[in-house]
Here is the input.
Amino acid sequence: MAEEVRRKGAVKFVFWTLAAIGITTIIVHSFMSGQMANWYYYESAADGYAVNADSFFNATKQRPAILSIRDTDQISDLVAVPVKVGDRLPRNATGVIEGKVLQTGKRAVIDGQTIKVMIPWEVVETKGFRFRDSFEHKGIRTFGWAAVWNVVMVLSLGLALGYMAEGMTDLLGIKLEKIKHFEGH
Amino acid sequence: MFDFTVAGVEAPVLLLVLVGFTVGTVGGFIGVGGGYMVTPALIVFGFPGYMASGIDMTHIAGKGLVSTIRHRQLGNIDWTMALSMVAGTMLGVELGVRLLVYFKELGLSTIALLVTSVAVMFTLFLYTQFETRRAHKKICEMSEKGESIGREIQTSSLPRFFQNIPLSPIVRCRTARVVVSMWVIVLVGVVTGVLAGFLGVGGGFIRVPALVYLVGASTHIAVGTDLVEIVFSGGYGALRHSIEGHVDMMAVLFMISGAMIGAQFGSIATSFVRGPAIRYILSYSLILATCGAVLRLVYVLTGSSIEILSFFALVLTLGEMIFLCIFIVSLVVFAIRHRRGKWVPKWVPPLVC
Here is the structure.
């Protein structure tokens, strides 16, 4: 009987371990190939200028970053690409400086064919915890099916890891019996 | 350090795995997602606040499933109760999120959130602590008289009141051995869902006491059943956050790998203890989280001028994870020693089996 439980445990463990490895490989591959980032920074959710927020993270009021406005498929360094709502974002774009931000002129301002960024990030609060909030992730829209992909992946991984662990304890002969909740009552 | 290109952050992988492990242990033991502990930790690692909430919620869905599978094996899930509650929970979460958006428009979201957190958690702490102490005392008395002691001792009379509500349909929850109006379970789902959606958490720390004190489930079954809810509410939350672009799947992957081990340990640890032990740990978790929320509330109300308050709130929140984890490990070690007839502190035997 114990041998039978162990044998079934071994099969369960091997099957679900392979499943977990497979799911992990898919997630890692999608990250390494850049697909994850492509899906994430998919299209513009606002009219404005797509930028790579990392490239000017250290700009200050005294030493503002000057971004040249250019229409291109790929952002390299200090470039801003004009976009409208629903436009596919250029590669390496990590956020959109919205038109209203430029109109206010507090953090960034248009100066001819360039954008001058004075305040690349601000300290903001969530539930009483403070963090640096930059132009990154602003004005972007994620590919809709990527959200479904995320949920499917995380639940599949949870399922595979859960059964993998169950198979492992069976394989090791660790007997986990159902708790007798009402014994002694 | 790992470059999370989606989140645009470089963060230490080992610490992410470690946070996953600790929260997995605590979550598997007391049936919570642990959002109130993970989000601050991710902010410390450099993730923006909105991203921290999204990553947290997504990892909770996966981790919840890992714990659910183990609790199913231990017989801690009442599927009738869990499935009756799902629709109520989802409706409640949606209402809670809308309420939060309304408060945001009024410009009160942070203060409203913190005040509600403090009020809810402190009330739950007081009741859980008061009731569990009574149960602990009762076990000691029964033990002195040489009576046999079950896995669960509850002294609250609230479940009897709710079980006597004669509203059809009446459901029979076989595993929990509870017969109750389905509307009571649905209502528990809605109310706890509203609070969960409003506070932006999985809601386990509200749902577990609600299942114990209102529906009348034993603590172990409340924990297992709640984890099923967490899979649904976490999955829905993950979808919403992913649509909003608040999720970095690589961070989720690292956290789940740690949480998977922790969740196993936490879930299996429940088989070593009696119900009051789980309720004690839940109540300590509540009071520590309340203290952290009070510090943050004072910090926000004083115009974010006293930096030390924010720092202490953070230390307390992170320290809570480690403290609870050590507490659970100690209980299991003492339970094993007790089973082998070795010395254990006097307060341990009534709590373990």
